[in-house]
Here is the input.
Amino acid sequence: MPRTATKRVEPAPAAAAPTAVAPSVFSGIRSVQSPRIAMPRGLRLNTRLKMDGLKLLAKLPAESIPVAFFDPQYRGILDKMAYGNEGQSRSQRRCALQQMSEATIADFVKGIDATLMPSGHLFLWLDKFHLCNGFRAWLDGTALDVVDLINWNKGRIGMGYRSRRTTEYCIVLQKQPRKAKGVWKIHTIPDTWLEKAAGNRGNGHPHKKPVALQAELIAAVSNAGDTVLDPAAGDFTVLEAAMQRGRNFIGCDLNQ
Here is the structure.
C-alpha cells in the first residue's frame, strides 16, 4: 500500500524572555546604600550636641554620610546692604549670634564634602545677597557640584530696599559622581516650597528653617536608618526632620 505522506509540524517558538526594564531617572527606588558608621567616642546620635562644628566634622569618618545640611551664620544681608537698622527690633538676636567669616564657611563646606559619601547631597541655605553675588568660592577644593535650587516661600514679608523678600534659597549640591537615577527617589518636590516660617519669639532661633521641606529632602536622598548631618544646627530643625523620617542625626551648635 502506498505510504501516506504526513505533514511535518514545526515546533512552536519558545516564548521570548521578558526584557528587563532599567529604572528611569524618575524611579522611586534608591539603589545606593550608605555605609555603616562607627560613631567616634564622645559623639552621640540624635542629640543636641554643644560643640564647634569644625571639630565635629574632623571626628567623623570620611565618605560616610549620605546627606548634610548647612545654614551658614553670617550677616551678609545686614552688613553688606546696610539698611540702617542692624541690631534693632527683629534682627537684634540674629546680630548677637557668633558670625562666620567667608573663610570659616569655606572650611565648613570642605569638611562636609570630606564626610559625604560619593553622590551624597549637601543642602546649603542662602539668602538673596549670596545667591546674586556668588558663593562658588566656598566650593573651591571640593567635589561638590550645583544640581538644583529650591525656593522657600516663608509666607511672610522681610527686609528689602526695593522688593521685600519673602524667600530663602536652598542650593542642592551633590558630591561627584553626579547622578539622580537610583539616588534621588522622590520626584514630587516643587522647586518653590510654601511653608510658613515658624515664630521666633522668646528664646527661639532667629532664622529657623522649614521642618517639612527638610524632612522631604531627607527622604529623597537617604534610606531609613541612614545618618543626616548638620554641623551648624541652630534650632535643630534638621534633627526634628530626620526623626520624623526614621533617620539618625548627628549635629551640633555652639549656641546650644
About this structure: Residues 102-115 form the longest helix (14 residues). The CA atoms of residues 94 and 206 lie 6 Å apart. The two ends are 107 Å apart (CA to CA).
